Amino acid sequence: VLPEQLDEQMIHDVVHGFYDEIRKDALLGPVFNSAIARHDWPQHLTKMCDFWSSLMLRSGRYDGRPLPPHLALPGLGEQHFRQWLGLFRATVQKLCPPEIAALFMERALRIAHSFRLALAYNRGE
Ligand code: HEM
Predict the structure, then answer these.
(1) How far is the CA of 70 from the centre of ligand 1 (A)?
(2) What is the separation of C-alpha 21 from the centre of its chain, rounded to a whole number of angstroms?
(3) What is the Å distance from ligand 1's center to 47 Cα?
(4) pLDDT digits over 38-94, tens only?
(5) Domain count along the chain
(6) In what helix (H) or strand (E) does residue 34 lie, and over which residues does it extend?
(7) Is 112 in the pocket of ligand 1 (CB under 6 A)?
(8) Is the minimum distance from the CB of 41 to ligand 1 under 6 angstroms?
(9) Number of H helices, E strands in the chain
């Protein structure tokens, strides 16, 4: 059963809070800001709210394929994943009760791991 404080508002706050930090980050900011034009950010944030809402609340709002855009990012590596996960952890710890923060992290870690495997496979490692 889902904790009852976990709702669309909390997902919205996590997504917006996270990408505010991402865009200021010295390592990740340039990666995101060169892939996503300034005027496309609102659309990206809406998509990411849909993605997390589908994962966490089973809302079914996201039916995209998350992997391909990551395979297309040049030089995506371990340090990017570590930084991404560190910022995500800081965001959910700040904005959510501990059990909800743990649920977000569980999902994020699982997907990050599948992306790492797919990237390595794609590069023939
Ligand atoms: C999209 C970067 C990790 C989920 C994107 C985009 C960028 C990006 C630049 C936009 C691509 C585009 O529209 O051209 C990164 C970097 C990561 C990372 C640098 C860390 C190494 C993750 C993780 C998740 C995730 C761990 C999931 C928990 C998504 C999703 C999209 C996306 C769902 C939208 C895909 C779609 O267009 O449907 N990411 N990402 N990303 N990312 Fe990541």
Answers:
(1) 6
(2) 12
(3) 10
(4) 999 999 999 999 999 999 999 999 999 999 999 999 899 999 999 999 999 999 999
(5) 1
(6) helix 28-35
(7) yes
(8) no
(9) 6, 0
Nearest CA to ligand 1 atom 7: 32
1 is a domain residue: no
User: Is the CB–ligand 1 distance for residue 84 below 6 Å?
Assistant: yes
CA distances to 1, 46, 75, 118 from 15, rounded to whole Å, are 22, 9, 24, 24
Residue 104, domain CATH: 1.10.490.10
Residue 86 Cβ contacting ligand 1 at under 6 Å:
no
Predicted ipTM of the assembly: 0.94
Q: How far is the CA of 99 from the centre of ligand 1 (A)?
A: 24
Per-residue pLDDT reduced to its tens digit, 21-54: 999 999 999 999 999 999 999 999 999 999 999 9
Whether the Cβ atoms of residue 19 and residue 27 lie closer than 8 Å to each other:
no
Q: What angle do CA 64, 93, 105 make, to 5 degrees?
A: 40
Ligand 1 binding pocket mutation candidate from 34, 70, 85, 116 (most atoms within 8 A of CB) = 70
**Structural domain boundaries, residue 56:** 8-122
